[in-house]
Amino acid sequence: MVGLRGVGKTVLLDRMREDAEGAGLHTVRVEAPENRSLPALLAPELRVALLRLSQVEKAKHLASRALKGLAGFAKALKVKYQDIEVGLDFDPEPGLADNGDLEHDLQALLEVAGAAAQKAGSALVLFVDELQYVEEDQLAALITALHRAAQRRLPVVLVGAGLPQLRGRTGRAKSYAERLFDFPEIGPLPPDAARSAIVIPARQEGVEVENAALLAILKRTQGYPYFLQEWGKHAWDAADASPITRKDVDRASKTAVAALDESFFRVRFDRLTPVEKRYLRGMAELGPGPHRSGDIADELKRNVTSLGPTRNQLISKGMIWSPSHGDTAFTVPLFDEFMRRIMPGEDWRS
């Protein structure tokens, strides 16, 4: 059971899923948006995985039983989680995952699904992106079910990706969660790897990148994988011929920043209330961070206590996190620069 966090996590999650399926494993891939229940996310994808397992002769009986369990699971929890929509291929088996209690039913469902995967000589791998948005009680139910599967030595694995607050949320959901999961952090690439990410794909197409251009890209992106992709693309588009020069990168930086502002950054900004925007703009005034809560309060000319609810809302929305007690940091690199661009001048203080 592994938890991932950081920029580039979604790309890595998809690559890991491709590798898992290439190795003959059965996978479930979901993304957890806000305001969707975990049962609603898992049920349709789990149905597909179980139908594939039912085509394996050795696992057919257990996979069919798991599909009956899924039918009972969806029917029993439909009352509580009204967003569950899943096609049902079998009638429910009375008493199997149909109590209407998520923690109990999900445990029973993953047990029988894991048994089917084991019988097939395979494994069931759950890939869940944006795991931080799963409600805490539902996250607790998922952790309990995985713990039970591990105790029974069933091949059920979770690979979850989320923002930095994910470790704390899993710990609050179940105190033993940190013993079950690894939490590798996906941060910026080291300089050599960042260079390779730009140089090697270009060279494969017969294009060279001048060292000054490369240094400019590394400085602007800070080595974060997604931003390296963006600057690499825009530098390629800006260059007329090989090699890609520093002037090409300077032109590309304008279009790369504009593209990020209108998509990657803007979609996050548009979810904020005016009060939340002002809080983040105050953070941005201090730089990339992390920042002490007291320093942010001073910048906003407020006391720390009065800003607590706003800070908690921003953590809940995945905009900021607390790397250590009393510290606050942006979850997205370069977001401080965006906030200064989108809210320039001093009008935001009023």
Order of helices and strands: EHEHHHEHEHHHHHHHEHHEEH
At the first level of CATH, the class of the largest domain is Alpha Beta
Compute the number of structural domains. 3
End-to-end separation: 47 Å
Tell me the major beta sheet: 4 strands, parallel
CATH topology of the largest domain: Rossmann fold
Helical proportion? 55-70%
CATH architecture of the largest domain: 3-Layer(aba) Sandwich
Mean pLDDT: 91
- Biggest sheet strand order reads 1-4-3-2
Query: Hey, roughly how much beta strand do the residues contain?
Result: 5-15%
Oligomer: single chain
Classification by helices and strands: alpha/beta
Number of strands: 7
Low-confidence stretches: 1-7
Annotation field: number of helices: 15
Q: Compute the gyration radius: what is it?
A: 23 Å
| Bulk shape | globular
Summary tags:
three-stranded antiparallel β-sheet, 3 domains, Helicase, Ruva Protein, domain 3, 15 helices, disordered N terminus, about 350 residues
Can you walk me through this structure?
Helix 3 packs antiparallel against helix 4. It contains 15 helices and seven strands. It starts with a strand and ends in an 8-residue tail after the last helix. Helix 5 links the parallel strand 3 and strand 4. The strands form two sheets. It has a four-stranded parallel β-sheet, with helices on both faces. The protein has a three-stranded antiparallel β-sheet with strand order 5-7-6. It folds into three domains: 179 residues, Rossmann fold (3-Layer(aba) Sandwich); 78 residues, Helicase, Ruva Protein, domain 3; 78 residues, Arc Repressor Mutant, subunit A (Orthogonal Bundle), CATH 1.10.10. It has 350 residues and is an alpha/beta fold.
